[in-house]
């Protein structure tokens, strides 16, 4: 029998995974300019890091480690949003870009909320 995870935890793991995959797929479609190649590399790294650090946060051994990993997620999603904004996409890919920027913004709000709520339990 498979382990049942907290549905919110699972949803966010899946959501960060889908964000990383969406960024990867978006980068594949970018025009091959020098700036897009570099921004694309950075975007793939930072978006993947969001997903990886969220998984690490869920496996953390302490509250302090959990908060640190969530803060890293927050930092990496901010960085991902920057790289998305800097890419120069084709007209037909602008909607995809805007959807990814919106998802980065929503993830940022979620990670901010987790940090604030977790810290409020410490006091």
Protein model, in words:
- By secondary structure, this protein is mostly helical.
- The chain has one domain (7-122): 23S rRNA-intervening sequence (de novo design (two linked rop proteins), Up-down Bundle), CATH 1.20.1440.60.
- Helix content is 82%, strand content 0%.
- It is built from four helices and no strands.
- The chain has helices at 7-29, 34-58, 63-86, 94-122.
- Helix 1 runs antiparallel to helix 4 (94-122).
- It is elongated and about 45 Å long.
- The termini are far apart.
- The model is unreliable at 1-5 (pLDDT under 50).
CATH topology: de novo design (two linked rop proteins)
Q: Specify the helix fraction band.
A: over 70%
CATH superfamily: 23S rRNA-intervening sequence
Domains (count): 1
Anisotropy-based shape: elongated
Q: Look at the structure and give the CATH class.
A: Mainly Alpha
Total number of beta strands: 0
Weakly predicted, low-confidence segments: 1-5
Cα(first) to Cα(last) distance is 38 Å
The number of distinct helices, counting runs of at least 4 residues, comes to 4
Write the element-wise H/E pattern from the N-terminal end onward: HHHH
For the record, the CATH architecture stands as Up-down Bundle
Structural class: mainly alpha
Q: What value does the average pLDDT take?
A: 91
Biggest sheet details: none
Q: What amount of the residues lies in strands?
A: under 5%
- Rounded radius of gyration (Å): 15 Å
């Amino acid at each position: 029998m498979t382990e049942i995870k907290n549905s919110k935890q699972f949803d966010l793991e899946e959501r960060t995974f889908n964000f990383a995959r969406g960024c990867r797929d978006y980068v594949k479609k970018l025009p091959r300019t020098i700036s897009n190649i570099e921004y694309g590399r950075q975007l793939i790294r930072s978006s993947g890091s969001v997903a990886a650090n969220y998984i690490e946060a869920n496996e953390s051994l302490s509250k302090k480690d959990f908060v640190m990993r969530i803060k890293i997620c927050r930092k990496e999603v901010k960085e991902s949003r920057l790289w998305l904004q800097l890419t120069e996409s084709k007209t037909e890919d602008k909607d995809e870009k805007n959807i990814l920027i919106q998802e980065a913004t929503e993830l940022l709000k979620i990670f901010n909320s987790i940090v604030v709520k977790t810290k409020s339990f410490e006091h």
